[in-house]
């Protein structure tokens, strides 16, 4: 797995456009014609994963063409175009003229020639490129979705949140976890396209559950010390049942309550180790981290970290003093 960062400004102005389109050829084979050669700018990051490429790009107004010759070099991939700002008009062989703007997605069969015009002075977009073989279980829904603009449904939002988060964290994840996440993207894409019932059930058991759990954990983190934080409150925010939330955490060998307690204990541990918070009492820190029962906090802290809160604070302050 690797992450590539490419900027048009890195190339000599005399060859900037040609050099840039050669550099991004790992994701797409296109001829780029800027509205203004001298002012052309683009910044792109590409993630190369098993059975998947992700891309985040920003570029100026331009036209792009995929000729028959370039299309023949792309392989049998499906590219998901997701405009974040600006937008484009597109025509591909066998399709119709379409316009794609933020709030919609376009599924591009890379093996077909076509052309596009990017409208805005600044165009931000996110891309996924997936070999067609990984989407085969979607059945007829795949072919029916190609060369068409689709609205961003809840299923697409679920996929895109997961995919963009994965793209941002790629450089920090171990290879085996990246491979697992890549398979989740395949499943979520099948779901978003409106797969057959059989394919949907397969995907629901993997990618959708993983994305749901990731979104719920992120929400927990943002509301970690809120007194409202419980499974019912989170379930209502995500329009799912508390029972489904319990099943998600059970699949990881824990419970919602234990997961929240663990995250709060880690937060308390960080604050106790922070010299800047040494003037706060241990009970104040416990309460600020969402613990209302101090006896339970002390017992749980010692069981988790093998030391009392007082011992952890003393060791951290001693280490900070010695480092001066």
TrEMBL record:
<dbReference type="GO" id="GO:0003700">
    <property type="term" value="F:DNA-binding transcription factor activity"/>
</dbReference>
<keyword id="KW-0805">Transcription regulation</keyword>
<dbReference type="InterPro" id="IPR020449">
    <property type="entry name" value="Tscrpt_reg_AraC-type_HTH"/>
</dbReference>
<keyword id="KW-0804">Transcription</keyword>
<feature type="domain" description="HTH araC/xylS-type">
    <location>
        <begin position="214"/>
        <end position="315"/>
    </location>
</feature>
<dbReference type="GO" id="GO:0043565">
    <property type="term" value="F:sequence-specific DNA binding"/>
</dbReference>
<keyword id="KW-0238">DNA-binding</keyword>
<dbReference type="InterPro" id="IPR018060">
    <property type="entry name" value="HTH_AraC"/>
</dbReference>
<dbReference type="InterPro" id="IPR009057">
    <property type="entry name" value="Homeodomain-like_sf"/>
</dbReference>
<dbReference type="Pfam" id="PF12833">
    <property type="entry name" value="HTH_18"/>
</dbReference>
<protein>
    <submittedName>
        <fullName>Transcriptional regulator, AraC family</fullName>
    </submittedName>
</protein>
<dbReference type="InterPro" id="IPR018062">
    <property type="entry name" value="HTH_AraC-typ_CS"/>
</dbReference>
<dbReference type="InterPro" id="IPR050204">
    <property type="entry name" value="AraC_XylS_family_regulators"/>
</dbReference>
